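Chromate efflux transporter
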Amino acid sequence: MEHPYSPSSAKRGNIASLMEVLAVSAKLGVTSFGGPIAHLGYFHHEYVKRRKWMDEQSYADLVALCQFLPGPASSQVGIGIGIARAGLIGGAVAWLGFTLPSVVALVAFAFLLHGFDIATAGWIHGLKIVAVAVVAHAVLGMGQKLAAGRSRTAIALLAAAVAVCWQTALSQVLIIAAAAFIGTRLFRTQAGDRLPAFPGAVSRSAGLICLGLFVALLLALPLAARWSGAEWLDWFARFYRSGALVFGGGHVVLPLLEREVVAPGWVSRPDFLAGYGAAQAVPGPLFTFAAYLGALAGGIGGAVVATAAIFLPAFLLIVGALPFWSVLRSQPSVQGALAGINAAVVGILLAALYDPLWTSAILDARDFALAVLLFGMLAFWKLPPWSVVLAGAAGGTLLGIIA
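Tokens:
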């Protein structure tokens, strides 16, 4: 039986497979509300459950890798899946499809909708409830696969408890590191299975080139901007630095971006905060907030420069790490660490389901009722996520009217 992501099932790099990746990632780009944790749930449903582009183990290992790398983890997972399906160009196409819808929306906010208060709109609240249903479904599905057995369940529950009670930029990294250490002790003897090579493997030479470029650009861009005096190069250097130095997800990038664009006077603090509110209302990665800032500072050109610069480190890092990850993930000690990490990721998902998703979205019994219906649409009726998003937006609007 042909493997679902074997090279023969998708000739990597040809036009048909690239268009397929673009179409699927673009659909996710317009329906994936709720932030990076929810994105992993959408990806799991679409890429693993429905299309079987990647098996459960490879997806879990890819998520574990991206949790360790700086940058937007969900975008890096999407890039990795695109590489698995259609090679390096497929990774770029997957990023473009997932990212472009929110870029367009936030640039439109910058030009047309700036100053409008949408934070209390009923449909926005409905989208928050959608995120609750999506993450709950992801926790259920991933927990059955990755947190089975007493030891893994214990790791997941401890990770959830720590993540809820200790919410800092560093906590998630430390939780994952601790779970990896525990995994090497508990699961190493159970983890000797030979895993298939990671699909769409990148050559080591390409990986080393990307890692070298990541470091070289981080060091050279500020010097080049200062030497040349070109404002667009200064923008590129500042957004690249923000994307390269972020651990802990999209929200952590906000103080870095504020320092880079508010302090020089490119964007005012009220405009910065208004854009952050708008970023919560659109699907896709929160890093596309950079497009809004770039549009305010330099129009369409500024939006393009800011978006390319903030995501470039993520692409270089995932491409640079994959060839070595393909080898390491087959080692018994690494497999043991991954078993611990994957259980911890389930716990982190569970913690995120409570805070910030549940605490900000489920405010009364009617919200809970809508969340239950949306969860049923995903888990039992097996309806596509886009229909759940539309139902959530409509339900939120209706709740706002009858409040």
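Confidence is low (pLDDT under 50) at residues 1-12.
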